[in-house]
Each structure stands twice: as structure tokens, then as C-alpha cells.
């Protein structure tokens, strides 16, 4: 018997279960794109049939990190840029958990960039949502890794000389097996993409455009947007790496030309998730490790019987 | 210098099999009934450079390296890049010979491989004069030739063992047994032939020396292992089944041992992108209900600073290992030092709430790692085991029964789903994970694990209210800070009640004391024995609890002596500083003997240091520093 009865509990899930009684109202600025992520995430939950006690949400630092306060589940609001390494270990410890990580563009593409690359490379079965508003919001408007070249801010008074990160292309090269871009202004698509990402067996990366009405007033509010799957202009095979790469490059470039392209950019179903790979080579137990600590009948071997012989 | 002991030093290049040969030599001597202790010295290089290992063997227990050594097996560096040239580092091939001159005792034996080291070159480094001056017995033998005759050049070390056995009149039985155990087929046969040929050849030389290898016997079955083995086995026996790490010397040792064994114990090992991730993964695994650890050495541990603080703030149990090496920065990667104490105690922003144990030897590495896990999971606090390259690299025999302990996989203060139903919840249904006043009157508020029904809460590095939500309310702040910090007092009381980690040595009553922490304990204890034999009145205290500091034990001990010398391997007297800070006095009672040249203390150095300190004389040795007590 599982020590975690919330996992795979068979019942109807209500969207409202994910609204915490303690902080039901988010304190983001009016018009903030982060509301869109929260709403889409809550809406996706009944669709994937997950309840609050089987979802573990890991966030970084920044406005996006507050997501944990307004989303009722097991939550871990970690430190700047480090949500992914905490999240992926939780998934290894208990693969039956539904693990979601979230952070901003500074968090995932700047300070935590190394973890973003390696988590994608390893293809952990988790969903990662990057709130991309092309700015540092909570620290009051500094240039971020996705700010356009020439972006002026208090820390880049002469305009940034750096080209922005290409998050989609980077994730494709790193090894993510589900990559999509959506926008806060498109809640229906966002909900669908989050649900798909959760159901995807592997690392699912969502670059979520979230407008910052306070510190990035110059930026477009990501309207109008085009869903590339719905548009006749973009006819590409989402499972073809080369075509996906081409589409991503276009998507990244056009954003800075004022055109917002969204949708699924790459989907690879064949590649096994990291946990599966590890189990195949005998480096991970078949039963969730976390269960053992709650199983009174579990046998715990000791080194005296197993390892001491070759020291004799 | 003590009589009735063998200190055999094997020197060569990295890659010449110095390590494995010394391990075999030590094991064979243990089998023969002796007690053994090894001391390892090596460069930060994959191939070449000078590396040596000393094997000290006595009939009585050994707990330290000795003073110098009395038998040198110099293989020469077969990986020297410019063997015949005056390279930047000197004549590389010869380094494993001439760099060992200083410590070879008078009357010692110096056996070198003339198959690799040219006679003319050897003449140039002044061996003859040095040998004459020190009455050394120099034995050139063509070990390489013997090895090549039966097998490959790498078997020079087996030839060296055979020759050593003949010169010291030790039976080759145990060496043969080892070769048969470790090898098979042609390899086994070739090595046995090399061993015997070298033994025969050396016997004919009839080397006349005064070294007497003692004879001994063991009352019970012995095992020989390193501090890294003991830390790993302690972790496994305490139910640790998750490790995450990034390679760094000397921490790599524990990480490797754990990675090799965890899968067969049903556990998981993760080699990750950096040490920030390593510590963060351990946190994530622990948060999800698994007993987890990580670790690193100085620079890598610096990267763990922020996750460490997160563990304190979210009260997520983890165990970290810090394997010290000489700093600052990259420092001397393969050399021991005890200079990361303050780093480990205070790194990470805010007031720190952590447990730090510094085991002094292999036995303590096992027991204190187990303590670290027990405390971490019971009190929801990070526990750090700090040790150094010296204990990491030293092998020592001890009774196998020391490890005959029951495993304990208890995840500590975690609720079961049934218990969660009866536990406190916020009116909205959220579990009260961080109660100001936990129900059992302790400072530990039990936790839940993701997946448990009705256990959901928020863990955050921000200050938080009982359900974990962010709060900057002053009253809540004080309540949470106090509860987290008060756990340290509870832990101190818990440790006092259970077996103390401190070790007392010498007479109960003495005029002087030597205070020591971590890896230098055994050497200090040996020095204390000699000092008492020399007519001094000295006792020693080895401290392992760095945090929470064992205030009562140390003050009581300091009160009982007139003066105390604090011995540590760093330049700024970090442990003495900690003692003064924690006890708020004794600055005028404690002086320091410090060493930070990359080599651990020898017992005779502590004897000299102590004697000159009480005589008020300058230290004769330039490789140590004496810092007088305040006011002196």
C-alpha cells in the first residue's frame, strides 16, 4: 500500500481546489501577465486529473516565484535560479509526484541557465514554465537575458549591447523533448499547452510570455499573437528537429520585430525520460524510493553484511 | 622517534601504482598481526610528479603518522615528462628519490630502482654524501629488469615488495595470498614470479641494518579502510539512499564510494552540473521524503552556501560533507589543511543554524556520520561532516565489530498520513508545517511529504507563517527565528545525553592541556603519551562537535589545566577563535601551535612545540607557527 494516498486518487478535480484559502488573491500588479499563468495552470489541473496533494510546484525568486503562494499544492519556493535541481530530485525520489517548476527569464535563462540546460539534457519528466517578460520586474526594471538588444534601463543606460537569449533554440539543442511558447493573453492555448506539457513524458519547456505593465511599458502586451498551429503561413512538422529549429529561430526573431508567434514548437515522444533511462541501467529502484521510508516491512541492508568483506 | 616500529615509505610518480601497492602492503602487515596506519602525499597531477605513501606498522595500536620513516622504496617517476632534462620542477624522474632524503631516519634503508634511475644521475643528487652522513643503507636493485623478465614494467612495485620483504626478513606468505586474491591467470603467475625473484635477489645482498619489524597478533577480526569508506558506510547504515555531487578533490572519494554502492542498496546517485545543483538536489530528495546527502571540498562547498541557507530556513534535513584541502581559492588541492572551519560554520547569509561534526579518525567518521543523519532528520536541520584530505587518504585497521551495528532508516520527524489527519491545519485546509509552538513542547514542528493526503504546505526561503506562507509580521518573525535557533540547544542536550563525540586522553589531572579538533587528534594523543613519559604533566581533549559547541565539556576541561595549547592545521587559529567566542573567555589561557605547509603534524613536532611553548622559547622548526595566549 502506498504511503501517499493522494497520488492517483480517483475523483473529480475542481479548479477551485487550487486556490489557497490563505492567499486567494494574488498581489501582482494589475494587468500583469503572471495572472494568466496562474489561471491557465489552475485550469489545466482538472484536465490532467491531478489533485493539490499530488502536485509539487517548485519556484525560483522574483514575481514568478510568488506563484507558489497563490497556487494550492505542495510548494517549494526555492532560491534564485535553482528551482530545477530541487524539483528534479523530488521527481527522482518519488516519480509518482506531478512535478512542475516555474521561474522568470532571469531565473531560468540567466542565473539558473546552467540548470536549465542540464535538466533539459537529462530529459527529466517534469514541466518547466518560464515567465518571460523580458525584464527584471521585482527588482524594478533592469535589463534581463531576454531584453532586446539596445534595451535601456537603469543598469544599461546606453542600451544593452547584448543580443537576447534564444530560449526555444537553446532548449532544442539542450535536449528538451517538448518545447512551446504561449502568452498570457491567450489563456485557452496556454491551458492546453500546460496540460500537454504535464502529460508529456520527458522535459517539457514552456516559454510563457508574460507582459510587465509596470516596468516594461514599452514592450507590446504580446497582442496580437499568432498560433503557429492555426496559421497557414507556418506549415512545419513539430516532430522534425530541423523544421522545429527553423520555426523557433523565426519565432525568436519576429518577437523583436513586434510579431508574437506562439504554439508547440517541438515534440519528441520516443525518447525515454531520465528516470526510465536510469532504471534501465539499474541505477534507480523500480518502486519509488520515498515509499520505502514509510514501509514498516522494508528491509534495510547494512554495510557490515555487504561491504566489509573486501576490507578484511 | 620510537623503537619497535616500521615506517615504510613507497615513493614514485602518480601512475606508478604507489597507492595500490601501499594498500596491499598495509593489508598484508595487518594480516600478519600488526596494526597499520598510512599517510598519503600526492601531487595534483594524473601522471608523474612525486607521490608517496607511508605505512606505519606496530604491534600496539597506531593512530598517527610517525616521525619520519625508516625504510624507503624509491621507484622513481616512470611518467616523468622530461626525465633527463632539468625541467621546471627539477629532475623529475629522480624526485621520488631525492625529495625523500629529509625524513629518512638515521640508519634507515633506502632501496631504489636502478633499472629506472641511472647511477650517474643518482650520483649527482648527492645520495652518497647523504647516506654517509646519516648512516643509511643504500640498496640499488634493478626492479624494472626483474619486472620485465616475467611480465610488464608496471610490476616494478611487486618487485619492490619482494625486495622489501627480503631485506626486512618478512615472510612473503601474506603478499602471495593477496596476489592470489586480487589477480588470476597470467597476471597472477607473473606477479608471483616477480615477487619471488626480487625476494631471492635481495636476500643475496645481505643488507645489514637495525630495523626490527615487530610481531603482533589481533584478538579479533580486523578490517582496513579509510575515513571516506567510514563516512560512506555510516551514511548507508543510517538509511541514506540519495547522493548528489560534482567531482572535487578530496570530496570525490566519498562521492565515488557512494556512487559505486548505492544502486545495489536500492539508492540513487546523481552526478550533476555544479555544486549549487548538488546541494539543491539533496534538498529536493529530502523534501520528497528520502534521506539524502551531498558534499564537496572548499571551493565547491562555497557554491553550496545558498542551498545550505535554504535548508536552514525551510528546515529541510540534509547532510553535507566538507572534505577540506589547503586553501585559499584552489590552494593546494591534494594537501591537507583545517582551514575551512569558519567557512563551514558561517557561510550563507543570516544567522546560521546548523550542526557541524569534525570526526578525528576512521572510527569517528562512521559514528559521527550516523549521528549527523540522526540529528539532521530528527531536528530538521542541515548537518555537516567536516574532515580533511588527511583522514580521507589514511588507511587504518580496526576491529570489524565496530561496524556490526543495526541500520536506522527512520526519516525522523515526519508524519504518516494517519497522523496528518489529527495534526493542526489552517482553516483553509493547509497543513501547519511551521508551528510556533509544536505540540510536543519541542522546537521541531513535524513535516509532511509531497503526495501525502492533506499534508500540503509551502516551503520557502522567505520568512513564513505556520502554514509556510510568506510573512514579515514581527511577532511571527521572532517566534520562527527563536524556534529554529533553539533547536541547537535541544541538539546540544541530546548529544550530551547520548554518547559524547569528544575524546579525552592522558591523565585525569594534569598541569597542561592540548586541545585539538579533527584529524590531528591521533598525532596529538601520541605526543601527549611521549610528553608524559618525558616527565611533563599533560592531557589532551579532542573536540568533534563544532556546532553546537560542547560548552560544558570544554570549559570544565579548560578549568582543570593551567594552560592549554591548541593544535590545528591552519594559519589563523580558527578553532581557538571558535572556543574563545563560544566560551567567552580563556583567551589568556590558550596558545596555538599551527601548521599550514601542506603536511600534517608529526608527533615529535607537537612534542617540540609544546616544550618550547612552556619554556617560553622560540620554535626551532620553521614549518610551524606558535601564537602565544593573549597577554603573554
From TrEMBL, chain A:
Region (Disordered): 140-166
Cofactor(s) required for function per UniProt: [4Fe-4S] cluster
Source domain of life: Archaea
Matches recorded under NCBIfam families: PorB_KorB (TIGR02177)
Residue ranges occupied by any Thiamine pyrophosphate enzyme TPP-binding domain in the UniProt entry: 61-208
GO biological process, any: organic acid metabolic process
Keywords associated with the record: Oxidoreductase, Pyruvate
GO molecular function ontology, one term from the record: thiamine pyrophosphate binding
CDD domains: TPP_OGFOR (cd03375)
Stored InterPro entries: 2-oxoacid:Fd_oxidoreductase, OFOB, THDP-binding, TPP_enzyme_TPP-bd
SUPFAM superfamilies for this protein: Thiamin diphosphate-binding fold (THDP-binding)
Native source species: Haloarcula amylolytica JCM 13557
Name of the featured protein: Pyruvate ferredoxin/flavodoxin oxidoreductase subunit beta
Automatic annotation (TrEMBL), chain B:
Keywords, comma-separated and alphabetical: Oxidoreductase
InterPro entries documented for this protein: 2-oxoacid/accept_OxRdtase_asu (IPR022367), PFOR_II (IPR033412), Pyruvate:ferred/Flavod_OxRd (IPR050722), Pyrv/ketoisovalerate_OxRed_cat (IPR019752), Pyrv_Fd/Flavodoxin_OxRdtase_N (IPR002880), Pyrv_flavodox_OxRed_cen (IPR002869), THDP-binding (IPR029061), Transketo_C/PFOR_II (IPR009014)
Enzyme Commission no: 1.2.7.3
Start and end residues of each Pyruvate:ferredoxin oxidoreductase core domain: 510-584
GO molecular function: 2-oxoglutarate synthase activity
Spans traversing the lipid bilayer: none
Enzymatic reactions: 2 oxidized [2Fe-2S]-[ferredoxin] + 2-oxoglutarate + CoA = succinyl-CoA + 2 reduced [2Fe-2S]-[ferredoxin] + CO2 + H(+)
Highest taxon above the source species: Archaea
Annotated NCBIfam families: OAFO_sf
Name recorded for this polypeptide: 2-oxoglutarate synthase subunit KorA
Protein's organism: Haloarcula amylolytica JCM 13557
The organism's taxonomic lineage, starting at the top: Archaea, Methanobacteriati, Methanobacteriota, Stenosarchaea group, Halobacteria
Amino acid at each position: 500500500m502506498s504511503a501517499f494516498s493522494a497520488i492517483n486518487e480517483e475523483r473529480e478535480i475542481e479548479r477551485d481546489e487550487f486556490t489557497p484559502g490563505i492567499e486567494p488573491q494574488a498581489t501582482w500588479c494589475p494587468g500583469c501577465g503572471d495572472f494568466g499563468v496562474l489561471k491557465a495552470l489552475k485550469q489545466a489541473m482538472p484536465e490532467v486529473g491531478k489533485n493539490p496533494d499530488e502536485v509539487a510546484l517548485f519556484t525560483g525568486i522574483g514575481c514568478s516565484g510568488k506563484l507558489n503562494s497563490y497556487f494550492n499544492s505542495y510548494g517549494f519556493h526555492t532560491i534564485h535560479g535553482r528551482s530545477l535541481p530541487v524539483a528534479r530530485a523530488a521527481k527522482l525520489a518519488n516519480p509518482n509526484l506531478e512535478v512542475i517548476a516555474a521561474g522568470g527569464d532571469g531565473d531560468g535563462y540567466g542565473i539558473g541557465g546552467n540548470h536549465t540546460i542540464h535538466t533539459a539534457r537529462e530529459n527529466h519528466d517534469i514541466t518547466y514554465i518560464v515567465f518571460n517578460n523580458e525584464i527584471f520586474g521585482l527588482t524594478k526594471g533592469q535589463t534581463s537575458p531576454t531584453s532586446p538588444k539596445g534595451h535601456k534601463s537603469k543598469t544599461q543606460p546606453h542600451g544593452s549591447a547584448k543580443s537576447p537569449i534564444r530560449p526555444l533554440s537553446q532548449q532544442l539543442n539542450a535536449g528538451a523533448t517538448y518545447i512551446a511558447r504561449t502568452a498570457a493573453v491567450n489563456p485557452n492555448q496556454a491551458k492546453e499547452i500546460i496540460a500537454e506539457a504535464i502529460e508529456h513524458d520527458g522535459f517539457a519547456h514552456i516559454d510563457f510570455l508574460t507582459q510587465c505593465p509596470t516596468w516594461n511599458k514599452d514592450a507590446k502586451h504580446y497582442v496580437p499573437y499568432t498560433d503557429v498551429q492555426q496559421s497557414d503561413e507556418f506549415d512545419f512538422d513539430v516532430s522534425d528537429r530541423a523544421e522545429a529549429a527553423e520555426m523557433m529561430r523565426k519565432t525568436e526573431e519576429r518577437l523583436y520585430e513586434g510579431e508574437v508567434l506562439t504554439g508547440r514548437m517541438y515534440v519528441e515522444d520516443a525518447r525515454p525520460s531520465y528516470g526510465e533511462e536510469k532504471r534501465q541501467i539499474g541505477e534507480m529502484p523500480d518502486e519509488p524510493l520515498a515509499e520505502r521510508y514509510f514501509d514498516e516491512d522494508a528491509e534495510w541492508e547494512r554495510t557490515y553484511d555487504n561491504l566489509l568483506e573486501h576490507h578484511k | 622517534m620510537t623503537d619497535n616500529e616500521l615506517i615504510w615509505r613507497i615513493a614514485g610518480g602518480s601512475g606508478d601504482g604507489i597507492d595500490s601497492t601501499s594498500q596491499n602492503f598495509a593489508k598484508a602487515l595487518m594480516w600478519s598481526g600488526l596494526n597499520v596506519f598510512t599517510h598519503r602525499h600526492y601531487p595534483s597531477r594524473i601522471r608523474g610528479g612525486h607521490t608517496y605513501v607511508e605505512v606505519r606498522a606496530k604491534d600496539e595500536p597506531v593512530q598517527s603518522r610517525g616521525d619520519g620513516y625508516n625504510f624507503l622504496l624509491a621507484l622513481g617517476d616512470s611518467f616523468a615528462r622530461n626525465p633527463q632534462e632539468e625541467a621546471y620542477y627539477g629532475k623529475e624522474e629522480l624526485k621520488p628519490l631525492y625529495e625523500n632524503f629529509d625524513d629518512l631516519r638515521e640508519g634507515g634503508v633506502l632501496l631504489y630502482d636502478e633499472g629506472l634511475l641511472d647511477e650517474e644521475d643518482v650520483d649527482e643528487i648527492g645520495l652518497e654524501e647523504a647516506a654517509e652522513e646519516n648512516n643509511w643503507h643504500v640498496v640499488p636493485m634493478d626492479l624494472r629488469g626483474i619486472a620485465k623478465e616475467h611480465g610488464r614494467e608496471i610490476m616494478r612495485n611487486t618487485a619492490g615488495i619482494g625486495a622489501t620483504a627480503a631485506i626486512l626478513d618478512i615472510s612473503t606468505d601474506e603478499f602471495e595470498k593477496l596476489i592470489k586474491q586480487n589477480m588470476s591467470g597470467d597476471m597472477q603467475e607473473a606477479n608471483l614470479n616477480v615477487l619471488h625473484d626480487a625476494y631471492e635477489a635481495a636476500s643475496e645482498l645481505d643488507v645489514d641494518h637495525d630495523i626490527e619489524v615487530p610481531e603482533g597478533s589481533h584478538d579479533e577480526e580486523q578490517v582496513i579502510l579509510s575515513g571516506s569508506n567510514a563516512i560512506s558506510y555510516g551514511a548507508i547504515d543510517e538509511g541514506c539512499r540519495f547522493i548528489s555531487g560534482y567531482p572535487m578533490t578530496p570530496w570525490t572519494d566519498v562521492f565515488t564510494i557512494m556512487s559505486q554502492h548505492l544502486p545495489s542498496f536500492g539508492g540513487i546517485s546523481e552526478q550533476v552540473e555544479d555544486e549549487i545543483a548538488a546541494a539543491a538536489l539533496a534538498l529536493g530528495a529530502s523534501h520528497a521524503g528520502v534521506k539524502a546527502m551531498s558534499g564537496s571540498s572548499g571551493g565547491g562547498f562555497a557554491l553550496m552556501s545558498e542551498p545550505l541557507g535554504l535548508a536552514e530556513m525551510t528546515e529541510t534535513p540534509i547532510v553535507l560533507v566538507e572534505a577540506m584541502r589547503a586553501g585559499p581559492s584552489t590552494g593546494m588541492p591534494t594537501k591537507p589543511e583545517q582551514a575551512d572551519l569558519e567557512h563551514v560554520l558561517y557561510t550563507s547569509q543570516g544567522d546560521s543554524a546548523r550542526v557541524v561534526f569534525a570526526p578525528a579518525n576512521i572510527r569517528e567518521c562512521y559514528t559521527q556520520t550516523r549521528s549527523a543523519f540522526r540529528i539532521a532528520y530528527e531536528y530538521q536541520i542541515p548537518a555537516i561532516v567536516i574532515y580533511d584530505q588527511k583522514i580521507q587518504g589514511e588507511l587504518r585497521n580496526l576491529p570489524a565489530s565496530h561496524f556490526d551495528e543495526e541500520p536506522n532508516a527512520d526519516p525522523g520527524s515526519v508524519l504518516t498520513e494517519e497522523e496528518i489527519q489529527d495534526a493542526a491545519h489552517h482553516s483553509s485546509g493547509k497543513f501547519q508545517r511551521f508551528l510556533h509552538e509544536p505540540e510536543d513542547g519541542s522546537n521541531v514542528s513535524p513535516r509532511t511529504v509531497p503526495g501525502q493526503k492533506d499534508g500540503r504546505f509551502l516551503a520557502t526561503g522567505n520568512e513564513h507563517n505556520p502554514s509556510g506562507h510568506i510573512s514579515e509580521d514581527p511577532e511571527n518573525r521572532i517566534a520562527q527565528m527563536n524556534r529554529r535557533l533553539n533547536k541547537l540547544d535541544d541538539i546540544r542536550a541530546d548529544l550530551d545525553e547520548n554518547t559524547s563525540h569528544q575524546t579525552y586522553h592522558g591523565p585525569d589531572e594534569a598541569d597542561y592541556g592540548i586541545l585539538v579538533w579533527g584529524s590531528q587528534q591521533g598525532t596529538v594523543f601520541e605526543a601527549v603519551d611521549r610528553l608524559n613519559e618525558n616527565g611533563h604533566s599533560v592531557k589532551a581533549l579532542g573536540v568533534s562537535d563544532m556546532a553546537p559547541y560542547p560548552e560544558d565539556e570544554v570549559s570544565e576541561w579548560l578549568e582543570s589545566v593551567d594552560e592549554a595549547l591548541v593544535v590545528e592545521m591552519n594559519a589563523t587559529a580558527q578553532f581557538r577563535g571558535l572556543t574563545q567566542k563560544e566560551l567567552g573567555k580563556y583567551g589568556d589561557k590558550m596558545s596555538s601551535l599551527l601548521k599550514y605547509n601542506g603536511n600534517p603534524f608529526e608527533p615529535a613536532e607537537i612534542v617540540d612545540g609544546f616544550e618550547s611553548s612552556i619554556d617560553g622559547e622560540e620554535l626551532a622548526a620553521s614549518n610551524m607557527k606558535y601564537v602565544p595566549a593573549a597577554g603573554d
